[in-house]
């Protein structure tokens, strides 16, 4: 049985569509995702063609291909809003099993950009830089850190961050980590 995705989830996906439609032409194409990846890389002080910038771009490109395949359009798209909402809605409502393969590479790419000391997890200072890069305030950030750090280790792992991105899209969490 397929559960309909809730209103909050639909709204958040619709907002995501607007953000990801980088050239604002009302459809998503691979080039929109390449632009978004480049913008995020720059926000973390990396060039888009650095190793970390390329990792993120590859994650975004892979995500586009997943969504395009789900929507039944070609690998180059385009994906219109209705197609995106349907395809991404399925990805969200399927839970971690469908969400993680699609959003995992993107989240990993952002974690790599944010993980300045290279220990594989995100500490307080790195998280503050992350929030700054996506334009979130420090106060929201402190509360968010506690909510995302589900094992209370004092650092955020890739799994915790990916789960937070997923719970944002189901409406269970209010921190928008993807900007
Ligand atoms: Ca576009
Ligand atoms: Ca770190
Ligand atoms: Ca943790």
Automatic annotation (TrEMBL):
InterPro entries: EF-hand-dom_pair, EF_Hand_1_Ca_BS, EF_hand_dom. Residues 8-43, 136-171 form the EF-hand domain. CDD domains: EFh (cd00051). GO terms for molecular function: calcium ion binding. Coiled coil: none annotated. SMART domains: EFh. It holds the Pfam family EF-hand_7. This is EF-hand domain-containing protein. It comes from Streptomyces termitum.
């Amino acid at each position: 049985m397929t559960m309909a995705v809730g209103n909050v989830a639909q709204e958040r996906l619709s907002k995501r569509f607007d953000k990801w439609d980088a050239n604002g032409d009302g459809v998503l194409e691979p080039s929109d995702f390449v632009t978004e990846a480049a913008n995020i890389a720059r926000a973390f002080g990396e060039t888009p063609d650095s190793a970390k910038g390329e990792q993120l771009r590859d994650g975004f490109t892979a995500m586009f291909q997943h969504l395009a395949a789900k929507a039944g359009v070609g690998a180059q798209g385009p994906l219109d809003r209705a197609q995106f909402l349907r395809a991404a809605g399925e990805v969200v409502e399927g839970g971690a099993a469908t969400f993680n393969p699609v959003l995992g590479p993107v989240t990993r790419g952002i974690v790599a950009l944010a993980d300045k000391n290279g220990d594989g997890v995100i500490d307080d200072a790195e998280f503050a830089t992350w929030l700054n890069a996506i334009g979130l305030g420090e106060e929201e950030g402190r509360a968010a850190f506690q909510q995302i750090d589900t094992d209370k280790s004092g650092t955020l792992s890739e799994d915790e961050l990916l789960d937070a991105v997923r719970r944002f899209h189901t409406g269970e969490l209010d921190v928008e980590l993807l900007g």
